[in-house]
Amino acid sequence: MKKILITGGAGFIGSHLVRLFVNKYTDCQIYNLDKLTYAGNLANLTDVEKAPNYHFIKADIVDGEKMISLFESYDFDQVIHLAAESHVDRSISNPMEFIMANIVGTVNLLNAARHQWKNDFTGKLFYHVSTDEVYGSLGDTGYFTEETPYDPHSPYSASKASSDHLVRAYHDTYKLPIVISNCSNNYGPNQFPEKLIPLIINNIRNNKPLPVYGEGLNVRDWLYVVDHARAIDVIFQQGKIGETYNIGGHNEWKNIDIVKLVCQIMDEKLGRENGTSEKLITYVKDRAGHDLRYAIDATKLQRELNWEPSLQFEEGIRKTIDWYLENQQWLDEVSSGHYLKYYEDQYQNR
Ligand code: NAD
Ligand code: TYD
After folding, report:
1. Whose CA is nearest to atom 14 of ligand 1?
2. I want to staple 208 with a disulfide (CB 3.0 to 4.6 A). Which of 78, 174, 198, 203 is the partner?
C-alpha cells in the first residue's frame, strides 16, 4: 500500500487536503505530520480521524534527526509538504520562527527523503506547496506566471521563496523528483481568525472594530480552499516532475470591497439592519512592506492539467460565512487564550 505523507495536515489548507486524500485514496495510507502550533488543530479532522487509512504523527519538521528516523520507520513513498509558519504579520514581528520552520524544516524533509529513497526514485515524489507571495507585488496590471522572477518582500514570503529554491536545487543537484505549486490567497472553513476573512467574520459577530490596513486598496486573488486542495490533487497525480504550477482564482478583490461584502452578508445572516457591520470598519496603520497587488495567471494548470476553480466567489464566501456561524464553538476555542494575547499585541498600536 502506498504511503503518502502530508505535513501541516492539521492546519487550514492541510486539513482540507487530508480529508480529500483519506476519502479518495482508500487504497493508500495517509500520514498527517504536524507540530500542532497555534495554527494546527486536530478538531479540523474529526470526521476522518477514525478512518483506517488515516494516521497522525505529532512532530516538528525543524528536528532533522526526527525526520530521518520517521522516514526510516514509515518509508513514505510520496510527500506533500504544507507545514509552515504562514502569517505575514507574525513574520514581521518574529522572523526567526519562519526561517526555522519554512527553510530549515523544508531542508530537513528534503534530506530525510533523499536519505530514505537513496537514488531509487521510482514511484517517489516530493511535492512542495508554496505561495504567490514569492513573486512580490504587482502594479495595477499584469499577472504572475511561472516565469515571473522571485521578488519577496516580507520575512514570510522570503522564507517561502528560499524553500522553493532549495526544493528546486535538490531536483537539479540530486535528481530528487519534485513538483511545486504557488497559490494565491485561500479562504474557506477552518482558517485561523488572524487572516483577513475569518478575522472580519469573527469581529463582526463580536461587534468589534474591523481593522483595515492603510486605505484598504491592496488587491488579493482569492481561491476557495477546497479548490486549492483539488488543484494539489491534480498536480500530485499528473504534474510533470521538476515543474512549477501557479494556482489562482481569477478573482481579484480590493481588501475594502471584501470587508464590505462580508459586512453585508453578515448583516443579512445575523438579522441586523443593512449597514450595521460597516460601521465597525476602522482604518489602521498599514502593514510594513505591504504588497499592493497579487494576481495569478493559472493558464498552465488549466491548459495542461485541465483544472479550474469550481466555485464562484459569492457562493464560496456565503458557504464560508455559514460555516463560521455554524461552528462558533470552533471560533471561540481558537480565539481564546494565546490568540487574545496575539490580537492585543498586533492591534494595540495600529
Ligand atoms: P496554517 O498556518 O493554517 O497551517 C500550517 C500548519 O503547519 C499547522 O497545522 C501547523 O501546526 C503546522 N506547522 C507549522 N510549523 C510546523 C513545524 N515546525 N513542524 C510541523 N508542523 C508545523 O497554514 P495554511 O494557510 O494552511 O498554509 C499551508 C501551506 O500553504 C503553507 O506552506 C503556506 O505557505 C501555503 N499557502 C497558503 C496560502 C493561504 O492563503 N493560506 C496560500 C498559498 C500557499
Ligand atoms: P492576510 O489574510 O493576512 O493574507 P496575506 O497577507 O497573506 O495576503 O491579509 C490579506 C490582506 O488583508 C492583506 O492585504 C492585508 C489585509 N489585512 C487587513 O487589512 N486587516 C487585517 O486585520 C488583516 C489580518 C489583513
Report:
1. 84
2. 203
